[in-house]
Amino acid sequence: MALKAAVTGEQRRFKTALFLVACAWAGFSPHWFEGLRRFFPAIVLAVLLGGYGLQTVLRDRKKILQNAKPYMAGGLEEVFPTIDIFVAARDEETVIARLVEQLHTLVYPKDKLKVWIIDDGSQDETTNLLSQLQGDFPDLNVINRSRNAGGGKSGALNQALTYANGEWLFILDADAQLQDDTLKRLILFARQGGWSAVQLRKSVVNSRQNLLTLCQSMEMAMDAVIQQGRLATGGVVELRGNGQLIKRSVLEKCGGFNEETVTDDLDLSFRLLTCHAFVGILWDPPVHEEAVLSIHALWRQRLRWAEGGLQRFFDYWPFFLFGQLTLIKRIDLLCFFLLQYALPVISLIDLIASLLTKSMPTYWPLSFVAFSISGLAYWRGCSTKSEGPALPIPNAFSLLVAIIYLAHWFVVIPWVTIKMALFQKNLVWAKTSHQGQQIIKA
After folding, report:
1. HEC states along 148-171?
2. In the beta sheet, which residues pair with residue 115?
3. In this structure, is residue 191 part of a structural domain?
C-alpha cells in the first residue's frame, strides 16, 4: 500500500521551520571563515550538483525515449483500453466550449472513451455553457459540485472517480488543446514503455505574445528536457497536471488524489513512487496550454507551485529515506530538492549575511552553475524538433532573457518557505485564469 502523507498544517509548519533553520545555517556558516575557505561549500556543491545536472541535460535519450508514432493500419481498435477524460472546471467560460468540441474530435474508438467535466461551483457562464453542450454532445458527462465542497481540484477529480470505470484516466486543464491523434499515440507510448503514468510535454500557445509568455514557453521546453534526462539516468519524472495519463488501478492503490495538497499533480508523482509505479514523459505530441500574461498572475501561479513542491517533500520524506527506492532515485530527488528549493533560500540568507558582515556572497559559484545548466537545457529544448506551436529560437537574446526570468524562483521559494513556516495554511481551490487564446503562429 502507498505511504500516506502527513498532511496536518502544524506538521508541515514544523518541517518547514526546520528546513528554514537548516538553510539559514548553511547560508550564514561560510561567512565565519576567512579567505577562500568560505567558498568551499559552494564549490563542492557546484561540482556535485552541477555534475549531476549537467549529466541530466546532456544525457543521450534516443535509445530510451522515443516519440509515439501514430497507428498506420486499421483493425487495431480492439486493443485500445477504455479511457475516462477528466476536466475539473471552475469559472472556465472562455475555454470550456472549445475543449469539449475538441475532445469529441479525438481519433479514438468512441465506445471506449468517456468525457467527464466536473463543474466545481462555477459562478460565471460555465454551468450554462455545459448544459448547452450536452444538447450538442449527448454523451458528454457533467458532474456538478457546490463551490464549498472542499478538496480543491483533487476533490473534484476524486468525485469523478466514483462515476467513471475506465482502465486509464486522462487529466486535462480546461485550457488544453490537443492534436487529434494524441490519445492513440499516448496509449501506445504508455504500453511500449510499461508506464503506470505518462506526462505529455507542455507547450505554450501564446509564446509570441510578450516576453513573459516567451520565457514560459522556453521554461516548459527546459522542464521537459530535464525530465527526460532524469528518466534516462534512472531518476524521477513528475506529473504536471495538464496532459497526464494515469492507470486507474495504480491510482486507486495509491489512495486516489490527495485533497490536502495545493498541487495534486506534484503530490501524486510522489504517491506513485511509494507504490513503485513510475512515470514516463512524451515529447511529441504535446498538450498545448496558455501562459499567463502578467507578473501578478505569474506570481500567484508560482506561489502555488512552490508551496505544493515543498509540501510533497515534507509529507513523503520518510519513504525517500527508508522506503524501497533505488539509490539513483534517492540521489536524483536529493539533487533536485537542493537545486530547486534549498538553493534559493540559502542564496537569500547568504546575501543577508554578506550585507551584515560586509563581505562577498559565498554561494555565487553554485548559483552560476545552476543558471548555466538551465541555459543549456533551454537551448537543447528549444533546438529539438517539436510538434505543436513553434518553440522560441534559442538565440543569445532569448537565452539571456529566459535565464534572467528564472531568477523569480529565488524570490518565490524563500517567500513561500517563510509563509509556510509562520502561518497556518487554509486550502482553497486555486487556479490560473484562462483567456481562451488559440495557437499563435510564427
Report:
1. CCCCHHHHHHHHHHCCCCCCEEEE
2. 85
3. yes
**385 C-beta neighbours (distance < 10 Å), count:** 8
What was the pLDDT predicted at 168? 97
105-122 b/e (C-beta count within 10 Å ≥ 16 → b): ebebbeebbbbbbbbbbb
Q: Could you tell me if residue 196 is inside a domain?
A: yes
Q: Which helix (H) or strand (E) holds 43?
A: helix 40-58
Concatenated DSSP letters of 165-199? --SEEEEE-TT-B--TTHHHHHHHHHHHHT-SEEE
Look at the block and give the residue holding cell 567558498.
39
Q: What is the pLDDT of residues 45-85, one digit of tens each?
A: 999 999 999 999 998 766 555 554 554 434 444 579 999 99
- Number of domains making up the chain: 1
Q: What's the whole-model pTM score?
A: 0.89
**Is residue 162 included in any domain, yes or no?**
yes
In contact, 286 and 243? CB cutoff 8 Å: yes
CATH number, domain containing residue 266: 3.90.550.10
Q: Which structural domain, as residue segments, surrounds residue 86?
A: 77-208+237-292
- pLDDT tens readout for residues 385-441: 999 889 999 999 999 999 999 999 999 999 999 999 998 766 555 556 655 555 544
| pLDDT digits 0-9 by tens, 99-152 | 999 999 999 999 999 999 999 988 989 999 999 999 999 899 999 999 888 888
Chain position carrying cell 495557437: 439
Maximum alpha-carbon separation in the chain: 75
CB atoms closer than 10 angstroms to residue 371: 15
93 lies in some domain:
yes
Count of Cβ atoms closer than 10 Å to residue 133 Cβ: 18
More confident residue, 193 or 71: 193
Q: Do 290 and 175 form a contact (C-beta atoms < 8 A)? A: yes
Q: DSSP characters for 317-383?
A: HHHHHHSS--HHHHHHHHHHHIIIIIHHHHHHHHHHHHHHHT---S-HHHHHHHHHHHHHHHHHHHH
